[in-house]
Every structure is written in structure tokens, then in C-alpha cells.
Design goal:
The longest helix has 21 residues. Strands 1, 2, 3, 4, 5 and 6 form a six-stranded parallel β-sheet that branches. By secondary structure, this protein is of the alpha/beta class. Helix 1 packs across helix 6.
């Protein structure tokens, strides 16, 4: 079986979570990790599991404006034209039975702060015809630019392993 993890990252936190998820998946499934700019240049994925993630910006998925703002807060290169929102909005519907999972990063504090890129990604994946193998999951950062909260990389690896196990289980009974 094959999986693809596609992510959008401004400050490296979502990228680190994507890599940790892939580590968890790789114990059971062949996996590739791609940033959204690279994924946008490739044909639609023919994988058993698509895992998509991005940072939470202004209570949801990033937009060109929020990516431009993020670019002013780092010396790293930030792609501003294509994010997860645009990539999913341009995706084709998928065959019946296609499986996916959604994750995001968001501020750990304050806990009551609403919004989640993971939930927005999950809605878009369902709209394309994917069946989610897990509820959309958020991983926490301590501040806008990071770092990741303690234990989040380990939690992402565990979540990746759970996704792979769920995929194997669902393939046996489909």
C-alpha cells in the first residue's frame, strides 16, 4: 500500500508534523511527503491514503493574504500563491472508496481560540469524495512561528501509525 502526505508550512512546524506522521505511517505503508507547491505540479495521487495538512491562519486555512503576512515574519522562503486551500479547490473528485486524513497546526494558547485548518481540510476532502479514516486532528505550536508544543512530534508519529493501522483494517473489509 502507498500513502502520500501533502503539507503547507510557513515556519517549519507543519512540515515537522508531516514528517513525523510519515514516520508513523512508514512502519506499515510506503509513504512519500510533499510540500503543497510540489504536489500541485504532480498528477492526482494514486495512493491508498492521502494525508493533508496545513497551518491554521485566521481561524481556518491560509489564504494568499495570510501567507504574504507570514512571509514577513521569517527569513525562510514562503510560497504565497498556492496553499492547501487552492490545491484542494483545484483537485478532481476521486473514485469511490478513496481514503484520506486531515491535520493542522494551531496555537496551543489560548485553548478557547476557535478555528482549525484540519477541520477545513477535512470538509474539502469529504467534498471531493474521500472517506476520512480519522477525525481531523490538530497539533499545537506555542506561538505563531513555533516552536511545537512538547510531545507533539511523538503524538504525530502515533497518529500516523494509527492511520496506517486503520487503512490496513479498512482494506481487509472493503
Amino acid at each position: 500500500m502507498r500513502a502520500r502526505v501533502v503539507y503547507e508550512s510557513m515556519f517549519g512546524n507543519t512540515s515537522a508534523i508531516a514528517e513525523a506522521i510519515a514516520e508513523g505511517i512508514s512502519a506499515h505503508v510506503t509513504v512519500e511527503v510533499l510540500d503543497v507547491t510540489t504536489a500541485a505540479q504532480l498528477p492526482e495521487p494514486t495512493v491508498d491514503l492521502l494525508v493533508v495538512g496545513g497551518p491554521t491562519h485566521v481561524f481556518g486555512l491560509s489564504r494568499a493574504r495570510t501567507r504574504r503576512d507570514a512571509a514577513t515574519r521569517t527569513t525562510a522562503t514562503v510560497a504565497v500563491d498556492t496553499g492547501i486551500r487552492e490545491w484542494l479547490d483545484s483537485a478532481l473528485p476521486v473514485p469511490e472508496g478513496a481514503r484520506a486524513a486531515a491535520f493542522g497546526t494551531r496555537a496551543a494558547h489560548p485553548r478557547w481560540l476557535p478555528g482549525s485548518a484540519a477541520r477545513g481540510i477535512g470538509r474539502r476532502l469529504r467534498g471531493l469524495g474521500y472517506r476520512l479514516v480519522s477525525e481531523p486532528t490538530d497539533f499545537h505550536v506555542e506561538a505563531m512561528t513555533g516552536p511545537l508544543s512538547d510531545g507533539e512530534l511523538a503524538r504525530a508519529r502515533r497518529w500516523g501509525a494509527q492511520l496506517a493501522a486503520e487503512l490496513e483494517h479498512s482494506k481487509q473489509y472493503s
